[in-house]
Amino acid sequence: MMIFNLDRYIVSGMRKKSNFLKEAAMAAPRVVLAVFIGIVIATPLELKLFESEINAEIGMMQQETYKQQDDLLKKRYEADLKVVNDEITLLRNKLNTVDQERTARLSEALAEADGTGGSKIRAMGAIYKAKSKAADKAEQDYQLLFTEINPKINAELSKLKPSKIRERLSWKVSAVHL
Questions:
Q1: What angle separates helix 2-12 from helix 20-49, to the nearest 10 degrees?
Q2: How many domains does the chain have?
Q3: What value, to the nearest 5°, has the Cα angle with vertex 132 and ends 131 and 133?
Q4: Residues 23, 65: one domain?
Q5: Using an 8 Å Cβ cutoff, are 159 and 91 in contact?
Q6: CB under 8 Å to 123, separation ≥6 — which residues?
Q7: Same-domain status, 46 and 126
Q8: What is the pLDDT of residues 29-48, one digit of tens each?
Q9: Are 83 and 50 part of one and the same domain?
Q10: The domain containing residue 153 runs over which residues?
């Protein structure tokens, strides 16, 4: 009502003049008031009308920001992850080497027993017993190494779990902020 009355006052005070510049000067407050009212009312109305689109765009921008931050963190700790992955690969290779040795010894013993390898005699003689003993020794070595290496591999793998990585990263980041 106040805006309406102010506009009525401005209009009622205007008289028809013969000069265009005088009429424009008298209409200027009304135009300024209209522009001001338009800006004050249109901006919140526009924001309310396009609220869902604005929120969707804000969500997309936040996701991009989170992705950029995540990429920066991954890049920052890429070397640490590479060290962990290299350690896991080294341990697995060591275990695979012993496993291949065990498999070779077992296959030699079986080949000796069925007569397809070694002495070519189908029997469980002295050569088979020696190869069987070597296969048993290789199995024991493998089991011993497996019980030694498997916890190490699991420990290294647990370092790669996202929760552990985030925990380590958040600790490092909070330590930097302190």
A1: 160
A2: 2
A3: 90
A4: yes
A5: no
A6: 113, 115
A7: no
A8: 778 887 888 788 888 888 89
A9: no
A10: 77-177
Picking from 69, 96, 130, the residue at the C-terminal end of a domain is 69
Q: pLDDT tens digit string along 109-142?
A: 887 777 776 666 676 777 778 888 888 898 898 8
Residue among 112, 110, 111, 105 at smallest CA distance from 126: 112
Same domain, 54 and 84: no
Q: Strands, DSSP E only, in the chain?
A: none
Q: Which pLDDT score is estimated for 171?
A: 47
Residue 50 lies in a domain: yes
Q: φ and ψ at 49, to 5 degrees?
A: -65, -40
Amino acid at 140: Q
| Predicted model pTM | 0.48
Residue with structure tokens 């003993």? 133
| Distance of alpha carbon 86 from alpha carbon 64, whole angstroms | 31
**What span, in angstroms and rounded, lies between the C-alpha atoms of 89 and 153?**
9
